[in-house]
Amino acid sequence: MAVYKVKVATGSILAAGTSNSISITLVGSRGESRQTTVSLYLLPGKEKDLTVSCEQDLGPIILIRLHKKRLFLEDAWFCNDVCVVAPDGTLYHFPCYQWLEGTTTVELREGSGKKLADDQLDILKEHRRKELEARKEAYQWKSFAEGWPHCLKVDSVEELDSNSQFSSMRSTNFTGVLLFQKASYLLSGFLLRRTSWTSLDEMRSIFSRTQGRDIVPEYVAKHWQEDDFFGYQFLNGNNPIIIRRCETLPAKFPVTAEMVAGSLRGDTNLGKEMQEGRIFIVDYELLEDIPAGTIHGRQQYVAAPLCLLHQGTDGLLRPIAIQLSQTPGPNSPIFFPSDAEWDWLLAKTWVRNADFYSHQLLTHLLRTHLFAEVFAIATLRQLPACHPLFKLLIPHFHFTFHINTLARTVLISPDGIIAKASGVTYEGLKLIVQRGLEQVTYTSLCFPDDIQHRGMAHIPNYLYRDDGMSLWEVVKSFVSGIVAFYYQEDAAVSGDTELQAWVMEIFTNGFLGRSSSGIPSSLQTVAELNKFLTMVVFTCSVQHAAVNNGQYDLGTFLPNNPSSMRQPPPMTKGKAFLQSFLETVPEVDTTASIVVALILLSSRLNDVTLLGHYPEERFTEAEPRRLIRTFQAQLKEIQDRIEERNYSTSLRYNYMNPMETENSISI
Description:
Largest sheet: 5 strands, antiparallel
Shape: elongated
Strand content: 5-15%
Distance between the termini: 53 Å
CATH topology of the domain at 359-554 and 596-660: Lipoxygenase-1, domain 5
Number of strands: 18
CATH superfamily of the domain at 359-554 and 596-660: Lipoxygenase-1, Domain 5
Radius of gyration: 28 Å
Number of helices: 21
């Protein structure tokens, strides 16, 4: 008689326990146990001890089967893990961390990745085949829009399985925040009973509220007209990836040294300033000829501006020339700081409007949310739960399916907030993302490469770069440690068929097989794997935090972040005044709708897992656990440096603070 001691742990999350029948089967290299009842009632956060008796020793335990049987009513169960102690004292650990629903059987592989004999490998080969077969059936691809990355084949959050949905706590919190903010801001719009604003002070009084949080919209409302703050946002605002060093002016932007001599403080040698790396450009070319829509039946307008900026001797970045179209000529004047106050301010506001589209649809939606979903689907379809890279990556996809499905139904659907409260049509929205994907490169997704490629390695006050480089390096160090533990040589990488299928699926469904992007379709070396995994983890955590967390701070004051423009771009100078400005920026209720969305997207909800925290102990070996502790210590050092820097500044940059960075895209 062989007796095995078994400990089954139920998750501590709300409703994790069950009143359904749970039983277990042990599978060893020399046979299986009988199906043994665990319990008919399991409580959240509790462990259940039992023994499994067998007529003979089962040999090394390879996997277990958990059986859930629905009794009178369905009662889902969340299992954390199962530990088994063999008669010889050997401990086996089986991570689970998933919901079991209905009458079902789930197979779990032992988590340590111990070297197995050939007969054991045969058993596991069949287990992996069945697991991936079931996953591919459960997680299928679909095309949301032509030229977009593919996404999960669901139409609503109700179609997601329990492992992909928000937890009960998060769902309740999310709904509460949404209802409160929507009621508050729509009431503000209703009480005004006007379509246009009467003054700038009116905007400040309504939309520069702190909501009881440590935020900076008051600073924005006070400084939004200043050139210094306008330039600052290209470095440390919501869209810090669009600016690049300008070494040669494009022909479509015919700025001369004489035109900007005043802004260069008398130095008319514009070419020299370019050579010395003090001239920068922002080009919204992707917005050219994007169809503009209507709001309340009134035509809106979209521009595709270019903006030239100069770094002064004080290190600050300031705009020195703005052209509101891609085609120079008499009807497309170039605006300068020396122009009349409202001409220059209106030109800058058109740039901010273009930046709204660029940020929301490309930098935020495409480059973080949509790519993260691609990474998640490919991981679930191609990597079994026992694969070390599955264990590494799966925490970085937590809640991503839920928030992205909500985005497709609430924000970017034909009747969604972005489509209804911005100046582009729904077709225009889809076209912007399509164009954006065509220009995505592997270089642009890998943080250090992108900084170098854009010529932004040395400009001062680029806190996004400074914090991002620190975080990229610690993520890379952590990822490289995990890879080194499981892949001792390049041949182990090139020979991992599951890994290769994963990369190919990302290349095919995320980047639509476009080889010109430089996105790899296979990985042949340990170094290549380290870089690719670092990019995935960084995108799903740090990069999303950088472009998401400041949306309320920097976007809630209307003139700094207009979602639409109600008048066409000016074709001449000298006709802009306060009244024409107020008649150009979005209406009251349009602004209210956008602000509701920004508050929600920037909210810190309950049930958050911060970067570097892995409450689900999927790695059972000592080395990965040591690497996690080191990772957490390095993140704490970065957090301390950021908080020390922020302590002495009036405009703190905190969006990449590890204490503000979630492990995954969940908001």
